[in-house]
Design brief:
alpha/beta; globular; 6 helices; six-stranded mixed beta sheet
């Protein structure tokens, strides 16, 4: 039995933000390795003349720090204890929440459950940390915890020990989640014809494609353990 920490983040989750795609993602690793992994990420920042407590994220990607982000991506793929899964919603505009008697927020947490459930293994234990979305995050994550546990018949919460909201900028591993889901979202996003894409971001995307062996637009095998992708659609 291994106790894992699972760090989760989202990209473009707002209902009317004008962006077609939404991505939910998580990185998980043994809890015993968390401290060492966080320290390694800090070292990578220092080697690239970035303060270890400075936040790195997809929206900050630019030519001046491309080597830093390349190093972070390589570290993720080289570190056997790090695993990634994401759920892609290709087009939020076709959602019909009234048909299913739900709000966008209700649906959002249903997608979180769908993303997380493939990570859990009943022979192990998990503590899940989700980026704080709004003032209702604590209430919603308690419900998500209940649903995840019920799905696994884990009524005593011995497998999924907790699901807790935290601030993503305070945890190094969460920043890596942001970079990976940012890249996946960028690949799957529909841009206006006059939009000038970032060459730096495309370079990082090409590196992720090469290291993962995936195009980042299609579902991988369910038990893919390093870079797992699930493309959700309204038929599910």
């Amino acid at each position: 039995m291994v106790l894992y920490n699972v760090y989760c983040d989202e990209s473009c989750h707002l209902e009317n933000d004008g962006i077609n795609v939404m991505v939910l993602g998580a990185i998980w690793c043994p809890q015993a390795k968390v401290k060492g992994i966080n320290e390694k990420i800090k070292q990578i920042k220092l080697c690239n003349n970035v303060h270890p407590n400075s936040e790195i994220k997809w929206t900050k990607v630019g030519p001046s720090k491309v080597k830093l982000y390349e190093n972070i991506i390589d570290y993720f793929f080289d570190e056997d204890d790090l695993h990634f899964r994401c759920l892609i919603v290709p087009d939020k505009s076709i959602l019909d929440h009234k048909k299913f008697n739900q709000t966008h927020d209700d649906w959002y947490y249903k997608m979180y459950f769908t993303m997380l459930k493939a990570i859990f293994n009943p022979i192990d234990e998990y503590e899940v940390y989700i980026d704080i979305k709004d003032t209702n995050s604590a209430i919603k994550t308690r419900k998500l915890h209940e649903v995840c546990c019920n799905d696994m018949y884990d009524f005593s919460k011995n497998i999924i020990r907790k699901i807790q909201p935290i601030r993503s900028n305070e945890v190094q591993i969460m920043q890596v989640v942001d970079i990976l889901i940012g890249a996946v979202g960028y690949v799957n996003r529909k841009f206006p014809d006059n939009f000038k894409k970032s060459k730096t971001k495309q370079l990082l995307i090409d590196k992720i494609k090469l290291r993962s062996g995936y195009k980042l637009t299609k579902t991988t095998l369910y038990r893919e353990n390093k870079f797992n992708i699930f493309v959700w659609n309204t038929e599910y």
